[in-house]
Design a protein that fits this description.
- Helices cover 84% and strands 0% of the residues.
- By secondary structure, the chain is mainly alpha-helical.
Length: 256
């Protein structure tokens, strides 16, 4: 087994023998279920009232009024739950003093960082697959436009990668898991607020740069069914940059 594969296997085993993965997945699925159920319930009531009063059903775009808001709200859900998923990845190793053992092993820092990121991403991808099964089941009884749904899921996966890379960086900066959660949440919140700051700065050069640095606009494009190379480049660049910074933090701590 490759060094990265060994790290991934170790981290996945740790996830599933502790309650972290189950709690995060449960909260994630519960919140998404609410975001799907509430608009469906509202549309059903509205349709029933129109059927009684006018004798016909309204023509409702379910992509626009059900799925798109639910997918957009997943950005907030991930902001809450993904820092919990990454909090222990390095912080726990430091607290238990096992980082020294890792440093003296044949593993490189790159192996460690990539392995831990991939493990967290696998857990996250499993959560997304569970939500996709629910969407497919809903699609069996309702009419959806599927291409925008596929691009939205691609956006969710890429946004999750960004959040996980930042969460991994936060965990590498402390040995306290609570601090790692708070730091990760704060960094991600600032990153998301760049969208609002960019709009305040208007069409100026700095405004456009600040707006581009926020993942919100890129994610929103994909939720709307738009796939642009600049959005894909953004997500890939931020993920790689987050992992690079994590590598630098761990490398600097190695020689202290």
């Amino acid at each position: 087994m490759s060094p990265v594969g060994a790290i991934v296997r170790k981290e996945l085993r740790t996830y599933f023998v502790s309650p972290i993965a189950y709690v995060v997945a449960g909260v994630f699925l519960l919140l998404l279920g609410l975001f799907l159920f509430l608009p469906i319930w509202a549309i059903s009531n509205q349709s029933l009232q129109m059927l009684r009063s006018q004798g016909n059903l309204p023509d409702v775009n379910l992509n626009q009024f059900v799925l798109r808001p639910a997918f957009s709200n997943m950005e907030v859900v991930m902001l809450i739950v993904l820092p919990i998923l990454t909090m222990r990845l390095f912080a726990e190793e430091k607290k238990l003093k096992t980082m020294e053992l890792i440093y003296t092993s044949p593993l490189t820092i790159t192996d460690i960082v990539v392995g831990k990121f991939v493990a967290a991403f696998v857990v996250f991808a499993g959560m997304i697959i569970l939500t996709a099964s629910g969407t497919l089941a809903l699609g069996a009884i309702a009419h959806f436009q599927w291409p925008p749904i596929f691009t939205a899921y691609l956006g969710i996966i890429l946004l999750g990668g960004v959040f996980l890379s930042i969460g991994l960086l936060a965990s590498a900066m402390t040995e306290n898991q609570v601090i790692a959660v708070v730091l990760s949440f704060g960094l991600l919140l600032v990153l998301l607020l760049f969208d609002w700051m960019g709009q305040l700065l208007g069409d100026s050069a700095i405004g456009k740069v600040v707006y581009y640095l926020s993942p919100h606009g890129h994610f929103d494009n994909m939720v709307k069914g738009l796939v642009d190379s600049k959005d894909l480049v953004y997500f890939a660049a931020v993920i790689v940059f987050g992992l690079f910074l994590t590598h630098q933090v761990i490398e600097s701590q190695r020689w202290r």
